[in-house]
Amino acid sequence: MQLYNDKIDIIYDDDKILDVRNFIDNMWNGLKRWKILLLLVFLMTTGGIVAVKSWNYTLLYQAKLTYVVTKTGDAATDVVITGRLSASFPDILANTGLSSDIKQKVQIKEEKLPGSIRMYNTSSSNMLNVMITSADYNQANAMMEAFQETYPVYASKNVGTVELNVIDYTLATENPVNPYPQLKYILMGILSGGCCVFVLLVCYALTRKTIRRETDMKKIVNLDCLAYIPKVKEKKRTNKEVRHILISDKKVSYDFRQAIRSIQSRTAKHLKEENAKILMITSSLPSEGKTTFAVNLAQAMADEGKRVVLVDCDLRHPSIGTMLGIESSGEGLQDVIENKLELEKAVKKYRDHIMVLCAGKAREDTANVLSNPRFQEILDSLGSEYDYVVIDTPPVSFFTDASMISEYADAGIYLVRQDYVEARYVREGMEMLANSELKLVGYVLNYVEAGFLKYGYHNYYYGKSYRYYKQKVSDGEN
User: How many angstroms separate the CA atoms of 5 and 105, rounded?
Assistant: First the structure.
């Protein structure tokens, strides 16, 4: 497998095919990232559904009455008459004075009855059933009493003299015939809330175009992955002290340290093959961990007995001096370039085998400084004195500084923060570097966390287990 690339080959892939693994991982990460907001959406949706259903739900109470219809004494004839009374009842209720008589007796002022009256006959019998349903059980009982007093008159007008004998009379009670289905509405609310959360997560996953794994990078550039560097999770501190992640700190995870050492080993091998010394570290965007990586890579090189000088070329936002606690009095690389300070005085010792050349005071007009021929002389001088010159550069997508520095570097490593930088920024950065003669050793995927679908890291860094994962990551081939 070729690691050292003489030319950066940009791959233009429309990426229209959905990557299922990335899609599921993005949903899982979205759930973790927005869990509080999604929980609120879930609770509000669930509560809203339950509240609306409860508001619109009406409890109903029912009174029942059963007549035995007798007219001729002939059973068959009585059954026919019973059927006729049942069939004609809706017309009698709507078009005669029955409804008005009931309202008058119950003292109802509304135009319509505050309930429903239903009549039906039992099949092949002379039993006539009446049900009165209302939202008030007292009203249902009052209407039933009024109905019993008034209906026989209207029945006789319809079919002639007829006897209606009551054989069953059941008043409405405080127990509704349609109890409130609380569990049903809660389940409906939970289902609706879950659907809302799912839709939001799907939208989130579909709009995420960030780099998550090596397969994503293969759609952009023909470049090898040197390693995956695991994300280091630190305990919250009560004081305001900021502890930087350094491989010299034994409290830093074993897997992080091994990942850095693996990169150092592979990088050193190929720099030696190319007789290269000046190595630049860059990334697409700020906050990808570029400076931390450069410092740790320099330490790993020094641990192998190599003399290393770490150069802070991020003139806009210098940070290495502060990170390592090196006092530079605001003087550094730019002062040496402008001949305001001697190189020997600007280079500070950090620890055995590691020297640091700070950037100096932050400035925005960096083009004149980096294009100065003196910059090339400084790098050549450092290259002749040290085994390796590690340069920390600004993000390549935002400024031309990194492209200018690439003209002086022998090789480079491109850092990509997992699930942070979008593919378009990586492609833009690679395109800018492709215009230079820089040879990239490879790229590093930083701040790596396992997604919902776990994927192994055995090919990229070595260790017993990643202690920060909730579940052990498999060691399958990637």
Answer: 99
